[in-house]
Amino acid sequence: MAAAGSAGESSVGSSRRAPGNNTPSYDRIVTVFAPNGRLYQVDYARNAVRLEGVTSVGVRGADSACVVGQRRARGTKDKLLDTASVSRLFPITERVGLLATGIAGDGRALAHEARNQTAEFRFKWGYEMPPDLLAQWIADRAQICTQYVSKRPSGVVAMVMGIDDEKETPQLFTCDPAGYFLGHKAASVGHKDREAVNFLEKKMKNNPSLSFPETIQMAISALQFALKEDLKATEIEVGVVRKDDPTFRLLTVAEIDEHLKAINQSKQN
């Protein structure tokens, strides 16, 4: 009986492992649940977002939305890198922008597919794809990657921002590798996201009605707090959209520098 029991246990154990490999299959294949109910490959995708070493912040104001991201990770050894060529912030449509935090290649591929999807939506329905529908499509795309062995979850979290044309209000969403999306008043993703979220929770506890400049400065201040150092205008990229001018655009270095000066002045006062 003992021998039979041992054989039974070994057969169960072998069924959980990939042929010719001692690693449990639930640790290698995204479609297999672990005994604790987790999909490890999705967890690894979330870890990949943090391991890139960059942090992103998004804030939704009364009539505008702003996202701020690092151009490169702190401590990057490549001193000859042209930081202007590094970008994780993509215009998707004229009124919607996307900030991809995580593996740069996955973010660029996601932005390319999102542009194709929004173009098809406009061709089919005759108007621009709303930010919430784009966020839902990105989440659906990520969830599909958890159903097929041939697909790998993207190591990227997308922040989608824009103006809802019907409600005429700013919108800010995050889309997770697990396949869900959430709307936010403010959010942070990446290496130091917890520190930035703590800052934003305190500053936005009373649900302040932030003006356009205050929205930008709140997002930059949260990123500086998380990184524990002052940032230069060339080290970050800022995307904005506002109700009065719903066109998504990136701030210039000079505009970012003006907001950094305003933040420093407020600290001194």
TrEMBL record:
Residues 1-18 have a biased composition (Low complexity). Keywords: Cytoplasm, Nucleus, Proteasome. Residues 26-48 form the Proteasome alpha-type subunits domain. Coiled coil: none annotated. The keyword Magnesium does not apply. It is found in: Cytoplasm; Nucleus. This is Proteasome alpha-type subunits domain-containing protein. Residues 1-27 are annotated as: Disordered. SUPFAM superfamilies: N-terminal nucleophile aminohydrolases (Ntn hydrolases) (SSF56235). Belongs to the peptidase T1A family. One of its GO terms (cellular component) is cytoplasm. The proteasome is a multicatalytic proteinase complex which is characterized by its ability to cleave peptides with Arg, Phe, Tyr, Leu, and Glu adjacent to the leaving group at neutral or slightly basic pH. The proteasome has an ATP-dependent proteolytic activity. The 26S proteasome consists of a 20S proteasome core and two 19S regulatory subunits. The 20S proteasome core is composed of 28 subunits that are arranged in four stacked rings, resulting in a barrel-shaped structure. The two end rings are each formed by seven alpha subunits, and the two central rings are each formed by seven beta subunits. The catalytic chamber with the active sites is on the inside of the barrel. The keyword Zinc-finger does not apply. It comes from the Eukaryota. Pfam families: Proteasome, Proteasome_A_N. Transmembrane segments: none annotated.
